[in-house]
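The freezer alarm interrupted the setup, so I double-checked each line after restarting. Inputs confirmed:
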Amino acid sequence: MALEKGKINSSSLIMLIFAFAVGSSIIAPPGRGAGTDAWIAILIGITEGLLIAAVFLLLSKRFPNKTLVEICDLVYGPYLGKIISILFLCYLFHLGSLVLSDFTEYLSSLFLIRTPPIVLVAAMSLICVSAAKKGIEVIARCAVIIIPVGLFFYLLTILLLLKNFEIKYLQPVLTTPAEQLLWAAHGAATFPFAETVAFLMVLPFLTNKRDAVPATFKGIIFAGLVLTIDAVLNVGILGASEKVYLYPSYYAITTISIAEFITRVEIVASLLVLGNGFLKIAVLLYGVSLGAAQLCSLRSYRPLVAPMAVLMSILALYNFPNPAEFIRFNNKIYPVYALPFQLVIPLLTLLIAVMRKSAQRDVNSEPKGRRSPTESRRR
Amino acid sequence: MVLLLIALFIMIIVLEIVPLVKERQWKEVTVASVLLAAGFILSMLIMFDIDFPYLAPVISDFVEKWLALPGS
Amino acid sequence: MSLFPIAETKNKQLCLLLMILLIIVVLFTGCWDWEELNNLTIVSGIGLDQAEEPGKILFTAQVIRPAALSGSGGDSGGTRGGGEGSAETQAVRVLTTTEETVFQAVRKLSTQASNRLLLSHLQVIVISREAAEQGIYHYIDFFARDPEPRPDIRVLVAEKEAGEIMRQPCGVSNIPALGLYRAVQTAELNALAPDITMQEANIRLASETIELIAPIAKLYQEKGVSGVTKTRIDIDGTAVFRGDKMVGKLNHRETRGLLWILGKVKTGIIVTEHAEGKQSLEIVKAQSKITPEIRNNELVVKIAVDVTSNLGDQQCSKNLTDPVMIASLEEKQTAEIKKEISGAVKKAQELKADIFGFGDELRRKYPEQWKKLEQHWAELFPGIKIELEIKSQIKATGALIEPIYQQK
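Predicted 3D structure, all chains:
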């Protein structure tokens, strides 16, 4: 029952996790609740994100060749397991549609104003379908190509931005009330760092299972640093007006004007944004389709990708009626809403697995083996 | 627009479902067609101007109702 | 099996597919959001006045006529900007309308312009003093909210009517608004007026303490080559706002005082009077630092300015380039800068507008005490004492080491 024959190595996993965590966060920077201390909130958020990641990594270490759907089957038994799997897949599905609508909203309010959103959603999900159908290996290879190019351009724009940067806008440091800072940090942890919980559907395809922990951590830390730099730049450039912008990073980049010659570079910087978005949606689409296929014990997940993408696109169009709801959801609701899926499900599964002493038995002896006794028993 | 959508769905059916039917993978056919049918019905409803509630406010209201939120 | 048969097909099919894709890419670029240059009218400058009717906006847009820019090159040079020359040779046209809101006016004018107005190349927004005194936010929200205008648009206050500024030529540019855009930058370079972009205006408006400033554009008469008097635009002085309402202005000396404190003086001429004549000292390097202090319930702001200048010209025939003379010139320069800075601070305190960002500096240094000061800042600001610490240095004396003509 090998639904996925692809393999990814640790370096492409780092890239993929980086893309996933940066994802739409450059559009809607995390930690803004903390005002000028946003970057501190993100740094705390990284720590919290790593703790949450540690939970699902431990779970994945206990069942190295299994996706969450299979793990749930093992731990909770066929019925309860299926319910929990469905809940988790619903979260991934919703997350995918959220990312899709983030991108559509971004594109349609800044660049393609008169293009109907449905076209943007369709265009984005079409490439994601194509990538997800090719399997995780292809998505990972895309990441290896897209991320360095996108990062190069992004770093270039950062260099150009330094001219407008004023360190005094960031001072005084740490004046945000502790409660507000921690809430912003928690927001940053749930969006985007802990969203990497979706990799419970991907980690089993890692060539060397020992790399899972370092690669995930590296990806999250790396992404966290980029987001921290982004937050520092936004406040350092937009000053007191940072808090009023819907897309502060975009507005920070529009201020680039080197000798009135290098101007209007925001499209270039958006390359990384779009690339990351594509990878994030592709991974989520892949995860949902694979999970659904495993849930119904199908022989292939591929036929499910396109129908899933259609549903995801429809939901993406019906996520946010206006930016006010977008901000309310992101700042207040999502940090609570996401927790059950990001932390509670993996933690509960891990605890029950430890208590029931269930684990995949042949793991450490043959790390590359794809068949496991439990799996063959189920067939 | 409606025709375009129908064309899209037919394309998906031809490319995805028909090969499965040929290979007699009935289980896959069932799951994929159920999903596709759901997508088709939903998109047709949208096309004919049936308003769905937006999801985020529904979740927001739900979460706010059941949890006293800190911070904010 | 697959929606995209690239991986499974042979080369021939791949080529075919690529060709189809290429054709699609070429034919279907930007289906919805395409912009043909022919179908756009590029706005270069916007003037905003209060209309006669209360509550309405008199909106004046200067739009570029590409045909006039490309055709008939150079024959009439700088005189082609608004106001003169036959209508066909002018590089710009000025459109006017009176509407309730700015956005409504933009849309309304597109019929006069016969095309959609494109704001991506907007260079300047000029707001009349009258309108600015009633509140500038009435007018400029649109320019930050709409994705088209850039954050580097220059914001100016017109001494009288803003619409008139849009109609008169500025500098030698074909497009008056572009001339104005450059003039503001040159004015700041020479420390004559602040150069305020939309971006800076937004920061100052969003901040709770630092107040908005803007350069003032005014009209003056100039005798042309043929002896005919023409109206031109000049930049002079600074408009001072409290909140979003203009409350007063700084003259050009006070403006330089403001720019010293903001650390924005790059170059400029300081005139001193010494030894029976005047001298021009050219500023070549200037640095400034503000440090606020709270001393026994008194707010003191230390302003340290470090200036290097060159002796640029002298009127007297005495040799000023010996060390004693240089030292006294430096003293004179220090005194002049002190006068400028205290003049600016005094004026700002009279107007109760913290245009220097003293409040922000205090918040940075004393975040704890600031929480208490914050509520009374409007009353506290006029009582702030300043301490000046100015270091003047004259580094060079130009190509001469002593005056050519020396009185014996």
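Quick read of the result. The longest helix of chain A spans residues 78-110.
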